[in-house]
Design a protein that fits this description.
- The complex is a heterodimer of chains A (258) and B (384).
- With 258 residues, chain A is an alpha/beta fold.
- Chain A has twelve helices and eight strands.
- Helices cover 46% and strands 14% of the residues of chain A.
- Chain A has an eight-stranded parallel β-barrel with strand order 1-2-3-4-5-6-7-8, surrounded by ten helices.
- In chain A, α7 links the parallel β4 and β5.
- With 384 residues, chain B is α/β, with parallel strands linked by helices.
- In chain B, β9, α10 and β10 form a beta-alpha-beta unit.
- The longest helix of chain B is centred in the middle third of the chain and has 24 residues.
- Chain B is globular.
- The chains are: A alpha/beta (258), B alpha/beta (384).
- Chains A and B meet through α3, α5 and β5 of A and β2, α1, α8 and β11 of B.
- The complex binds pyridoxal-5'-phosphate.
- Pyridoxal-5'-phosphate binds next to α5, α10 and α14 of chain B.
């Protein structure tokens, strides 16, 4: 069965468009939920909500700072999910967090809570295929899409298995490294996008190292679209507010539609 | 029971595994394969043995402590890892990993360090093997272990401050992992304890089992068999894993001494961080808590997965000791035996000093994991 995220991304693609999935840190600032709504209105196809974790090993300084600030403000996974449950966002959402946040609550309970909060997908960067069984079982039971990662270092033989297990989209990691804005798009971004596109029909989005509208356009020549995290979170950290953040998302949308 | 190899995916019972980003999985698989090959290759083994003998100073002696034995009422034996080159057990693992990294064609080592002992050992091996070396160390630890920072630089390593989170060992691990994600193709992550993703917990234990294997022979010669008790301090648990490995199949009581402020097993809540599932200090939402200990080397909120398994299966017990008891033990060993222990190792002494009534007349083997030179400044401040 195809979930809400994959359905939305496939629809964008079959209209000849490119997909835009912004990442926002949950609980960052009092107006984070309004920001999520504004970003949905500004042209996001789906939205990743980051649930902060104390030790985010895949994240660079920007998202680390956002995590810390959100945690200091008393954010818990439950508070984020409760807020989402009562809101009408208008585009499908995935929660991105780390294994221990879900494991601590219990795989089943966490997946059920996502579902009950209207969250369609789940992204756990520290759960590779080797450790995915418990999580994916619980996610399948709760009808939650399991986004899986393909990395520049993944050998060819892993890619079909990753794509097979992925729900929502395949997250192609654009470079060897952690989240953060870089001056230029890495050559590895186009390369991994091409390798994954070659073996799956599922939407393939590149994230990590896509920080400007121009970079999103560049990588979307091969990929079905991009995940944009640090650039957007930096705006949130700078206090740009819902409109300021939405403006940036709008710029990405316009560039991708051009 | 023995300390066996983990499953192919690195499980010790319910614990262990490979919880790292996809980017690192190929590197972990490559390392697993390389270690398996090297460990069964007589050439690698003899090269490592040669280094351990001629460079690190092994075998380390077993010292019988007449004065302390009399004071405590049990027969105290010390396995003298403090006499190794660089002053602790850490060199055993580092020489093994550096030799392996070289064999794998890696040109750079990255490491995390708390007290600085593992950082110094890694910097030492990097100098010996002519490799580049980057060591991450929490800002707080850089401040409290200045001498070791200077040593690492002297040895040609770059020391980078881990400024995120609690700015101690756990954050240094995060930063080292982030660095590894960015440089995985030419860099080996030289992890300093029996933690992290498979194959590290197993590989690091194997590199340290020389402690237990030697001690087993030395005890055989001295006692005619295994001691009644084997005790070691536990941060991530590498020195404990090394000495336990030599005695897990005997009747010896195995004890891990945890700092009370960092007692991951004592709290017995399973969690996933830094690549494996194990016991972990965390809040009700899974946020990792900061450990608090007088010794920087034990300031870690988790424990290696095999220890979680040894605890869950009942083969080993893990006991908390307080900072105050450690300060007492540090002075006790110095005064009675003329041996100044590392604050980490003093946890093991502190446990037997506290539990002595339970073990009157018994033989107790203590892993003296390191010497206390690095800690005398801190102790001077505390005691004066
Ligand atoms: C002397 C000494 N003992 C013990 C430890 C703790 O490590 P582990 O628990 O891995 O033996 C350290 C760590 O820095 C150390 O320096």
């Amino acid at each position: 069965m195809t979930g809400a995220i994959e359905t939305a991304l496939r629809a964008r693609r079959s209209d000849g468009g490119k997909c835009l999935v912004p990442y926002l840190t949950g609980g960052l600032g009092d107006d984070w939920l309004e920001t999520v709504m504004a970003v949905a209105d500004a042209g996001a196809d789906a939205i990743e909500i980051g649930v902060p974790f104390s030790d985010p090993v895949m994240d660079g300084p920007t998202i680390q700072a956002a995590n810390d600030r959100s945690l200091e403000a008393g954010t818990t996974p439950q508070r984020i999910l409760d807020a989402l449950r009562d809101a009408d966002i208008g585009v499908p959402m995935a929660v991105m967090t780390y294994a221990n946040v879900a494991y601590r609550m219990g795989w089943e309970r966490f997946m059920n809570e996502l579902r009950a909060s209207g969250v369609s997908g789940c992204i756990l960067p520290d759960i590779p295929l080797e450790e995915a069984d418990e999580w994916t079982q619980a996610a399948d039971d709760a009808v939650v899409e399991t986004v899986m990662f393909a990395a520049p270092t993944s050998p060819d033989e892993r890619l079909p298995r990753i794509a097979e297990r992925a729900g929502g989209f395949v997250y192609a990691v654009g470079l060897l490294g952690i989240t953060g804005v870089r001056a230029d798009l890495a050559a590895s971004a186009l390369e991994i996008a091409g390798r994954v596109k070659a073996i799956t029909e599922k939407p393939v989005l590149v994230g990590v190292g896509v920080g400007t509208p121009a970079q999103a356009v560049e990588v979307s020549a091969v990929a079905d679209g991009a995940v944009v995290g640090s650039a957007i979170v930096q705006r949130m950290l700078d206090g740009a507010g819902p409109e300021g953040v939405a403006e940036l998302v709008h710029d990405f949308r316009v560039a991708l539609d051009a | 029971m023995t300390m066996t190899d983990p499953t192919a995916t690195g499980r010790f019972g319910d614990f262990g595994g490979m919880y790292v980003p996809e980017t690192l999985i190929p590197a972990c698989i490559e390392l697993d394969k390389a270690f398996r090959e090297a460990w069964t290759d007589p050439t690698f083994r003899s090269e490592l043995d040669h280094l351990l003998t001629t460079y690190a100073g092994r075998p380390s002696p077993l010292t019988e402590c007449a004065n302390l034995s009399e004071e405590l009422g049990c027969r105290i034996l010390l396995k003298r890892e403090d006499l190794n080159h660089t002053g602790s057990h850490k060199i055993n693992n580092v020489l093994g990993q550096a030799l392996l990294a070289k064999r794998m064609g890696k040109t750079r080592l990255v490491a995390e360090t708390g007290a600085g002992q593992h950082g110094v050992a890694t910097a030492t091996a990097a100098a010996l093997f002519d490799m580049e070396c980057v060591v991450y160390m929490g800002t707080v630890d850089i401040e409290r272990q200045k001498l070791n920072v200077f040593r690492m630089k002297l040895l040609g390593s770059e020391v980078v401050a881990a400024e995120s989170g609690s700015q101690t060992l756990k954050d240094a691990v995060n930063e080292a992992m982030r660095y590894w994600v960015s440089a995985v193709q030419d860099t080996h992550y030289c992890l300093g304890s029996v933690m992290g993703p498979h194959p590290y917990p197993w590989m690091v234990r194997e590199f340290h089992r020389v402690i237990g294997d030697e001690a087993r022979e030395q005890c055989q010669a001295l006692l005619g068999g295994a001691p009644d008790v084997v005790v070691a301090c536990v941060g991530g648990g590498s020195n404990a894993a090394g000495i336990f490995a030599g005695f897990a199949d005997t009747d010896a009581v195995l004890v891990g001494a945890e700092p009370a402020g960092g007692a991951a097993v004592g709290r017995a809540v399973p969690g996933i961080v830094h690549g494996s599932k194990s016991y972990l200090m965390q809040d009700e939402w899974g946020q990792v808590l900061e450990a608090e200990s007088i010794s920087a080397g034990l300031d870690y909120p988790g424990i290696g997965p095999e220890h979680a398994h040894l605890a869950a299966s009942g083969r080993a017990r893990y006991e908390p000791v307080s900072d105050a008891e450690v300060v007492e033990a540090f002075q006790l060993l110095s005064r009675t035996e003329g041996i100044i222990p590392a604050l980490e190792s003093a946890h093991a002494i502190a446990w037997i000093a506290k539990a002595k009534d339970e073990f009157q007349g018994k033989s107790v083997l203590i892993n003296l994991s390191g010497r206390g030179d690095k800690d005398v400044n801190q102790m001077m401040d505390i005691l004066q």
